[in-house]
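User: Sequence in, structure out. Go.
Assistant: Echoing your sequence, followed by the structure tokens.
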Amino acid sequence: MKSEGGLPDKYTYPLMINACSSEFKAWEGKMLHGLALKNGGKEDVFVGTSLVDFYGKIKEILNAKKAFDEMSEQNVVSWTALAVGYMNVGDFLEAKSVFDLMPKRNVATWNALMGRLVKTGDLRNARKMFDEMPERNVISCTTMIDGYAKAGDMASARFLFEQAAERDIVAWSALISGYEQNGQPNEAVKVFIRMGEMGVKPDEFILVSLMSACSQVGNLELARWVDCYLSRCEIDVRQAHVLAALIDMNAKCGNMDRAAKLFEKMPKQDVVSYCSMIQGLAIHSQEAQAIELFNRMISEGLIPDEVAFTIILNACSGAGLVEEGWYYFEIMKNEYSMVPTPDHYACMVDLLSRTGRIKAAFELIKSMPVEPHAGAWGALLGACKLHCDVELGELVAARLFDLEPLNAGNYVLFMQLQSNGWMFPL
């Protein structure tokens, strides 16, 4: 624009400054600040407000306050931008002070501050603000529903959802994805069905959450119903995230032919789509094909991530393929320079334990550079029970009881081990 002789004005400056409201474009935003001052933009409330918002978002709160104080007049948006800026740097007390000093507030102001509290995980103060609001809109309720869902408090999320006078598509999405992400896939499916009965059309994000929920349930008929539903609705299944979820659902629910067709028709397969297929094959006892597909992924130049190695090690464990498991465990460290996580070690412990190599499994646990989690110890205790190794089982059980003192299943497993030891002395 400048190269053609044009100059920004009070309308274009706010747009340009807002476009710079990230830490990666701080220099450009400050340059625009200087130009705005030079060209008389200092007196304009919209330019001033955009500067307060800009400095708040890049977490230069002193500059935000300075820009605010230099404004000849402030409006409700200016005050809100300053309060949110303090929230961005974690200064809730100062944000509350600004909020209390505001000569006028609207529902957008309340929502902005409450949304920042939700984003930082401070649900207690967010709920306090929600309860104090003189008026609420659909965004107010949806913000709290989403916050509770992401914190795993689905009871509170559902209560607010049912109490809401109005629900938008985002509220439905927050509830469905909340159930899906918190291990309650059947509830997610029920809410989706209810949404359809009320005539609400889902968007692509709700359908992705629904497919993820179906993947957890593992019900083939349900997966076919969802697949059929997708074919009738207006959602473009060629979108990468939608197609990935569709492949994952079909693979995990056992419709491997459908998953394979979708996979092969992809313009370009990535690690995520490969992992969905590999995991689906492994879940349904097709470990040889899973390994073959994993090797194909590597041969095509894709770099497996930690999740991919967890999946292939689980596949090797399920089939008792010790040599293959060790091979992938070693190339993960030596060829891809990855530090094995506790989950990777747990897979190897499970593999060794399943094949009767419990002493080797115990040595592997002892060699871990990080503290083993309960999954690894549990797999080893199960192997001790299977092979009647009471002496090692007592050592393993002691560690499990320390890690999970309230897990009754560990005590039951240990008692079964002792019972087997008495029946079949070593």
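User: And one key feature?
Assistant: Confidence is low (pLDDT under 50) at residues 1-6, 422-426.
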